[in-house]
């Protein structure tokens, strides 16, 4: 028995209200009898309560699903989780796993450990969802275990509510050869494979009887995609080579070449331009080749074929390994589900602002597998005008507008973004005439033209862990308040229809993002348009990533991995 | 740069004799120029020296090879190492890796790190030796990297001395189905595979729509072989299930069954009988089924077929996974080598007592791949008698015998064992007549009959890490003293022929052996017929295994893994 479990057994399992009781009973030696009488509570009542609980099926064990499960009040729901991975992985540290800065096992936590904290009422099945049958409220699953164990591998689950959090798969943009010859950085196994492959390249390059050119090709690492993952992997690889590998393979250290291929004009182009240019300068100093404005036409086992956009030239680049990190696309099971519910023509599964899948009752989608289809204000402009125009005068006064403005800001967040971008101080400034003078009243045409620019501010959320985690937490709070919201709806008013929405729509709060650039330097974009680069940012990165770990176990392991790396370097055993 | 490497760079690279110089130069700021002038030492001389060095090729990176390399004076030899594994693995901890008590990476150390301490003059090639060509003093190798990297994968190496330390492979005893359907415990990868497979069984057993019988079969773990490895794995698995798994899979905990199949009458039958019966009692208490006196006839993906020796009955046992751990056999490349040198009819490669391969010049074999063919005293009895009978009187006096007795004891260690087993106080007691009375003289026939029982004491050494490591160390000391031994031979006198042997023959010194039995209990056989069982023995095991680690990195990692296990338990993520 471990110490943690011992302490858990000793001190948990008692609600806070019963802790005084425990103190009394402890001194009287009655602890055991007390806890025993607890566990003998009437089973029939429990069964009845379970029978009338709504069934929630959750697909996936990533960021969205885990944060949903963590905060869900499971006394209200009968929850089942299905995923081919029986663990949660702290994906932002995957690039660190590729080179052994952090061990794979330090960033994973068994999903059963996470859900166990809920007294075991959540069930987990290690299986892949093969089909969502929305019409019959069923999901079909198949065990992913390869070996020929006894019994059926398929089963089906009924649900009242379905939460789709299956994540996305890599997007090859149909580039030939990518699936066959590239490495990816989506799963823990991918990172482990990359680690072995990097070492293979060095072991190969050092063998006797090779020409210098052959050694050079054996050590040419190509990374496609200049986003945060690709950039971080390039930086990790550079550090690994220059801090650890050169000591063990000194004879080939000068032959190593790292090339980063980016289709845009800059790497990290979703970040602030200061970060982007800092990263480019650092990479130039480090000798990492950054080829911007290049599109990959195809990959073979020996070469990457590239089109240089500026010259129109086709270049072929011999390589030893290619890591493909360019974006995400929809999984087949979600694609099939989209066909069923009339979303077949879309690229990504669409939900409304409450994360409910469009065109389908009682199905929610969170994380990378879906995108929020934000309602355009221009679609509802007439209804908003009518709702605001209380006296039905055909024109809107500033006072009338002010009465609905809070609901508008909540329902259509693009209005707020528009105000920011135009540097307007107050919402009523929106009603000013084209010259910027305040107007007392405005008619429907004037209202339309005043808000016509607003919808251009709509942006879809990035496919990041931060978004997924916030969506999961948001959704669990909606699930927890479902009954209450029937009586006291908390959402904005319905401009089309009557009453209010049950819940506030989901709103993403960007807490900042990091880009580690190697050599103990990082760049960060912090809330409030702050940009921070350098060594101190790397330490900020260390502390935030340590604090965000899902369990104390992984936290201790990740921090001790970092420490080990500082003391002993990274391990280069090929296992 | 890591701290260790920084300190290394700062303080190493200077021989002790030059340290006073360094102190002077440091104060004068001349450190840099000094070390530069060092590295510009005449290259031609260096090349010449290298050219006349003898080439040593070492096959393997296991216990024997690593301890050989560690102690070898490489200023005398040009050393190349070939192995498909670029790391050394601390194999006695493999059973701990199967259940995550210790992580795989904590027990491996890159071989380059080990040989780097020798100033990088040892070269390592990650490749498999495919053929030993003893006639032309060549080995043929092939890179084991699967991916299609550029350049040739095959190469050949010339040698002056070859050290074969390739280890052995698993012995299936030609049992059908073993290769296809069993797990093994020879390599790090095997242990990792077992870990995943154990978790698969639990994930499978818990799936919905299975019958209780199907769940029971999914959780039946069979171990074939009751030696230390099989027993330790059974104990680890039992601990893993009862300390960690039951908390996460509480609904199937009562269905788990562990069965150990042993062909002999007792498990751990190479150990003292007290240990063997302690282990059997402990396993009986733990609910581990020990089936002794059973022979496995075959294994399929669903069943193990067993013959119970006592009843002659055939039993078939449904299983979820089988771990096969019954002994070792010769690798194909060694088998092929044996055919070349006239050892084709033997099962294991034979060396003489100096670890020289019989029937082949300048080839040595150490570790599990070979066995020492101890010279029988009866084969040389005439020569010994003649050598001892200085006055050629045809009979041996006690004094004459005493003069050669030291050399006899060294050359034929079985004589010493014979004395021990007969509880004889002095070697001269051997010459007593059958009634035990001392004799003054003895003729050749009497001498023969006096020593006729001695050879029955010969035992081949077990295939353990301890033997391999001692052989490696012994061989390196012979290599280091090669030139000196030409002038001052240190070995026993040659009874056939003249002069002395160059070196003392290899002598194994048993330092004790452990059998961890789970639940923080272990059994140990210590030198001097000591037996120790229980918790304190487990702590002795911890401290000895920590101290025997090959590097400070692995030592820290192994100890922190043990600590992590005590605090957080073992991880059950299926990666």
Brief characterization of the structure:
Chain A is an alpha/beta fold and 575 residues long. In chain A, 38% of the residues lie in helices and 20% in strands.
Largest interface summary: A-B, 79 and 79 residues
Major β-sheet annotation of chain A: 7 strands, mixed
* Number of continuous helical runs of chain A: 21
Average pLDDT of chain A, rounded to a whole number, is 87
Task: State the end-to-end CA separation of chain A.
Answer: 30 Å
> Shape of chain A from CA axes?
globular
Low-confidence stretches of chain A: 6-42
Estimate the helix proportion of chain A, in percent.
25-40%
Structural class computed from helices and strand pairing of chain A: alpha/beta
| Main sheet: strand order of chain A | 7-6-5-2-1-8-20
Hey, roughly how much beta strand do the residues of chain A contain?
15-25%
Spatial extent as radius of gyration of chain A: 28 Å
Assembly annotation: homodimer
Number of strands of chain A: 26
């Amino acid at each position: 028995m471990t110490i943690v479990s011992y302490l858990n057994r000793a001190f948990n399992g008692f609600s806070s209200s019963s802790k005084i009781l425990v103190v009394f009973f402890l001194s009287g030696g009655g602890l055991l009898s007390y806890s025993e009488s607890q566990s003998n509570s009437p089973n029939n009542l429990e069964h009845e309560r379970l029978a009338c609980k709504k069934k929630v099926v959750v697909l996936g064990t990533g960021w969205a699903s885990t944060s949903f499960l963590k905060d869900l009040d499971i006394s209200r729901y009968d929850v089942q989780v299905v995923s081919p991975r029986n663990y949660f992985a702290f994906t932002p540290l995957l690039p660190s796993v590729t080179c052994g800065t952090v061990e794979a096992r330090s960033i994973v936590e068994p999903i059963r450990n996470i859900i166990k904290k809920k007294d075991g009422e959540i069930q987990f099945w290690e299986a892949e969802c093969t089909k969502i049958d929305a019409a019959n409220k069923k999901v079909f699953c198949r065990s992913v275990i390869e070996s020929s164990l006894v019994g059926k591998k398929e089963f089906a689950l009924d649900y009242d509510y379905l939460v789709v959090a299956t994540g996305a798969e890599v997007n090859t943009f149909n580039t030939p050869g990518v699936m066959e010859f590239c490495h990816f950085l989506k799963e823990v196994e991918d990172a482990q494979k990359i680690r072995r492959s990097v070492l293979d390249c060095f072991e190969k390059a050092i063998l006797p009887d090779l020409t210098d050119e052959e050694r050079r090709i054996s050590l040419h690492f190509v990374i496609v995609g200049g986003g945060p993952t690709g950039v971080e992997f390039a930086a990790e690889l550079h550090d690994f080579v220059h801090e650890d590998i050169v000591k063990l393979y000194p004879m080939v250290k000068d032959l190593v070449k790292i090339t980063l291929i980016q289709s845009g004009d800059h790497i990290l182009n979703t970040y602030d331009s200061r970060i982007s240019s800092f990263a480019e300068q650092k990479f130039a100093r480090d000798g990492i080749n950054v080829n911007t404005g290049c599109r990959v036409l195809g990959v073979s086992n020996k070469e990457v074929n590239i089109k240089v956009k500026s010259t129109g030239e086709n270049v072929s680049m011999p390589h030893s390994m290619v890591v493909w990190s360019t974006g995400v696309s929809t999984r087949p099971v979600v694609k099939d589900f989209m066909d069923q519910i009339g979303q077949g023509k879309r690229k990504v599964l669409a939900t409304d602002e409450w994360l409910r899948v469009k065109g389908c009752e009682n199905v929610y989608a969170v994380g990378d597998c879906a995108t929020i289809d934000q309602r355009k204000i221009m679609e509802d402009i007439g209804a908003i005008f009518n709702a605001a125009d209380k006296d039905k005068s055909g024109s809107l006064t500033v006072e009338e507008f002010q009465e609905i403005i809070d609901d508008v800001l909540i329902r259509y967040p693009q209005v707020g973004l528009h105000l920011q971008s135009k540097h307007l101080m107050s919402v009523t400034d929106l009603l000013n005439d084209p010259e910027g003078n305040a107007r007392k009243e405005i008619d429907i045409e004037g209202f339309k033209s005043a808000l016509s620019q607003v919808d251009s501010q709509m942006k879809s959320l990035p496919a990041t862990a931060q978004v997924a985690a916030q969506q999961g937490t948001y959704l669990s709070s909606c699930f927890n308040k479902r009954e209450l919201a029937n009586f006291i709806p908390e959402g904005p008013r319905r401009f089309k229809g009557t009453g209010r929405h049950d819940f506030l729509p989901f709103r993403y709060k960007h807490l900042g993002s990091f880009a580690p650039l190697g050599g103990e330097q990082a760049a960060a974009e912090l809330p409030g348009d702050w940009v921070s680069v350098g060594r101190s940012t790397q330490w900020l990165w260390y502390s935030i990533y340590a604090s965000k770990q899902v369990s104390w176990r992984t936290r201790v392991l990740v921090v001790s991995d970092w420490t080990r790396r500082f003391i002993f370097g990274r391990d280069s055993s090929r296992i």
